Amino acid sequence: MAGRAFMQLSAVLAFLASFLVLLVDIEAAVTVSVGPAQTVLKENTVVLQCTYSVTPAAQVDIITWSFTSSTESREVVTMLANTQSVFGTYENRASITEQASLRIENVGENDEGTYRCTVKVLSQGSADTKSVDLTVLVAASAPTIVSTVNSAARAGDDLTLTCRSDGGKPLPTLTWFNGTQPMDAGVGEPTTNEAARQVIRDLSLSPVTRFDDQANFVCKADQGYPDQLDVQTAEQVLDVQYPPVASISSNPNSSVKETNTLTLTCVVQSNPDPSQIRWLKVSGDSADVLQTGLTTTYVIPKINRSQNGTYRCEASNGVIPRDRESDGQATVNIDVYYAPKISSSFVQPFEVNFGSSLPAVTCEAEGNPTPNLQWVQVGSGRTFNNPLSFATMTYAEDGTFTCVAAALDFPKDTVNVTVNVIGRPDIIGDSPAAREFMEGKTAQIVCEIQAKPRPSRVEWFLLDSSDNRAIITTGGPYRILQENLPKGMKSILQINSMKPEHSGRYVCKATNTYGEDEQYFDVTLQAEDVVTTARGLYTDNGSDTTLVIIIVVVVLLLLLLLVGIGLMLAHKRGLLPCKGEPETGKGGRDENVTNEFSIEMADKDKSPTAPLPSRVESSQYIPTPLVAASYEARLSGASFGEPRSPVGQDKPDGKKGGYRDEDGLNNAELDLSSRKPASRRPIVDPKDTMDMDYPTLRQQTTSPYV
């Protein structure tokens, strides 16, 4: 019975032991972690990260790294009890470091693939494995550029540049640049050969132009790993031959003044340089050779107007031009400026009858640029357009006219033409002409006559009411004066001591061999008023003395008025001492001295009087001029109306203190006939101020009158 029980207990213990072992297997574990995929340049060193953790803590027994690619699998390295075993091609290159990481030196292209890190704990019967990829980079060789043209290209040719890169892993991307600017036009699609590790990309220039000469075309190869592989470049500077392209510059410019020096420069662009430069002067379809050689400049000292025209330079370098732009020729038109010169000649003088027209007189001149022509009348300065013509000639157009030719800053050229206007007299002014004169003054009626020849006879007439003419001669109140003028004469009828009977219509008549002209003058006396009299001071031989006297008197009166106003203002402001006021050392009033006068305030009850204080401030006391005026009024027995309430007497409410009624000073009466000089005492007795309220006292003492 006991044996059977022992056997059962042993079975239970065995079951518990097996359960505990199973429980330990479930909880025991090892966890492996690896780093990111790695890229490494061929022949460099790489570390593939691998770490682990064991739960519960236990000794790791085995660490193994293995390799797998699309073509093979192999063991790399195994570490058992801290002893590493390296296999195959990894010998002397691979090792386990940093816990479980794999270090591979001198990496080759065959090392590219997937690596597996495995960690085992035998005591727990647990293991874990993780994988990490390795990519091996191979630097490409420097790109090369190949041209379809072995030597220099010629403008107009088609040219292809080929960029090639070999040996790169991965294959690079090829990009074309013109200098620093990326190019799209003419760039072909890349051609790749993975097996040969080769990539090609073309640049087509169709056609090549002179602007491509010395252009720097760059091919860049980029494998996409800037941190490990540099971007490589290849450059090609083009040598493009093209015929000369010429232009001309002129100094000072293409428009030059005569006698100046002109320098022409042929500016040439070509590849190769010009072998010959010719200068020619073109005239229509022909040209005269002026200079041949390699000199780019042509100098004309002291150029003259005959050298005006078209100049051409021709450059050649052996490259046959394919278009007109590159024919190596350039032209310039030279415009030689020279001073104006009048070429017209005139038969002089021009004689024209008064009132008729002047045929066009045309002035012509040579010059470059074309001169500006203008006519100027000598003396008057009046200007007229060219040609010179007048529809109706008057004596104002008689005289000398100058044709002026002007251009730029050249000296002007001139020629004079004389125009003689002959004919009947022409009296200047409207007819009838009104004239007014003052009675008793000398009157002069002026008749100005233009005529050529001068009038042989000038007559004056006075018309009666029937328009009958009475000739006037020198004598009595009349006197006839004459004065010759450049284009005629002036006749003056002078009337001494103008009287009413001298009023009327006068006629001035001038006659010469070509005819006659006359003018009416209506003569009247001026009205007798102030304005007309003042006007007479300026006209009709009146004297200016009276006007001067009036002006002087008016100025003196204004000065006196200004002085009076100034004195009044000074008095009002207390700038001058007044009668009865003592003066201070500063010309002002003593603020502590009262006026020596007092006002006797009389009313029906014969109230006592109070002294008048001197003015301390203009707002507190009666102005001194008013006191003086009041004093004089009192002496003359004048009364200012109803008596006012005296200063200092009791108020109706029984209180003491100074006050006044609404009428102020106008209700006061001055009485100083029987008074001695008043004692100086304040308007308000100091002992009475206790009975007054302060605002009332302030109002009284700030009033302009007491």
UniProtKB/TrEMBL annotation:
PANTHER family: MAM DOMAIN-CONTAINING GLYCOSYLPHOSPHATIDYLINOSITOL ANCHOR PROTEIN 1, NEPHRIN. The chain crosses the membrane at residues 547-570. This is Kin of IRRE-like protein 3 isoform X9. GO terms for cellular component: cell-cell junction; plasma membrane. It is found in: Membrane. Keywords: Disulfide bond, Glycoprotein, Immunoglobulin domain, Membrane, Signal, Transmembrane, Transmembrane helix. Residues 599-618, 638-706 are annotated as: Disordered. Residues 1-28 form the signal peptide. SUPFAM superfamilies: Immunoglobulin. Residues 650-663 have a biased composition (Basic and acidic residues). The gene is LOC109474985. Residues 28-133, 143-232, 243-333, 340-418, 425-524 form the Ig-like domain.
